[in-house]
Known about the structure:
There is one protein chain. The protein has eleven helices and 22 strands. The strands form seven sheets. Strands 1, 2, 8, 9, 10, 11 and 22 form a seven-stranded mixed sheet that branches. Strands 14-15-13-16 form a four-stranded antiparallel sheet, covered by helices on one side. A three-stranded antiparallel sheet has the order 3-7-6, with no helix packed on it. By secondary structure, the chain is α+β, with helices and mostly antiparallel strands.
Amino acid sequence: MIKSRADMSRTEAVDVLVAGGGPAGLAAAVSAARLGASVRLVEKHGFLGGTLTMVTLGSICGLYTVTDDAVIPVVQGIAGEMARRLQATGGAPDAPKRWLKTASLPYDPFVMKLVCDDLATEAGLDLSFHSLVTDVLMEETRVTGLAYETPSGRVACRAGAVIDATGDADVATLAGAEFEYDHRTIQAPTAMVRFGGVDTAAAMAIDRPTLHACLERAVRAGIPLPRTAGGMFSVRDGIVHLNITRVLEDGHSPDILEVGALTAAEVAGRRQVRLYEEAFRRFVPGFERCFVLDTGAELGIRESRRVRGEYWLELDDVMHQARFPDAVACSAWPVEDHGGGRDTKWVFLEPGTYYQLPYRMMVPRGLDGLLVAGRCASASHDAHASMRVAAICMGLGEAAGVAAAQCVSSGVTLRRADIRALRRQLLQQGAFLGDEPPPALVNAERARMPAQD
């Protein structure tokens, strides 16, 4: 039965249906299609990449763990392929950038869009841009497809497997999944900005403590900045990307699932960008003639719904290098919590270490036919602050896509996926699952900055 009885303008059927074309959704769709599944990817915007292109993060976080002497990839597979494609086309530097006690890969957002397009078209995906999921198709507790609105009418698409990669768990919520969400405790969102007209040589010579000191002087001078430290990256001469704003309402995150609060937050984010433009011009070397080149198309949302899965990832798993028999990805990203003050809480893993992520955290409790991949997967608030970043979402998405293709092909439910076959295929695709030591990169920029924000 269809949960909503509204008429559909047309019907379709595919093996795997993916909602959301961000890091998790793109990786899921590509990996399923490469295994021969027919795949439709439904995306509400006119391009792929999600937070990487819509919000423009500035760098891909989560790819690496670090030691004093090495940068070590812990997310490979499709995420590693994306990084190599960016580097080959001049959209990313040859080496990752070390900062604090971690490292990430800066990138050009337009080149990222092209790389995402290439990955999708080469895999033969059926793409539906400008399409918004509005309903689920269900048979009792099994999700059998989605309904979505397009410029050419409403579509009902049935599928052997559905993957929710919407970030906000929109599909899982429509299907009645359990989830956790409290806007008073979730992480604050950020309006990303790129400045042009920058003396990049001077700007990129500034370390994080110096930037913090410059912006604290701006606060003392009367500019009400909500945050005085953040990420600063440059791929093109004269252009610097900043992850620096913090949008709050009454000292905590706005309710980003309520349209009025989200609308107000979008406006507030752009107003903050104007404050930072003034502060950087007046107080930060290299930015004396800077101007706002662009902001993200949407506010950068770090946290919203977290679906209750068959496994609930906890902070103890993150901090104690958890290992799982059904591990499908790894993470070494620190616990990065953007709360209500001007500081950001960082809790770093031991150098060179990582934890595994289990397949079960993508299987929602009480539902069949559905996997939840990306930042809306099953994790506590604290654990989520580590596993939510782009590369890790890609690792989970790749695993979800392989599982979906294999289960549809073999006729078994997603809940009963053959974990050994899933892991074997992921390894064949170049994924790192954490069972063997990963190789180190030795050509990364050495870190100069202490672990404080």
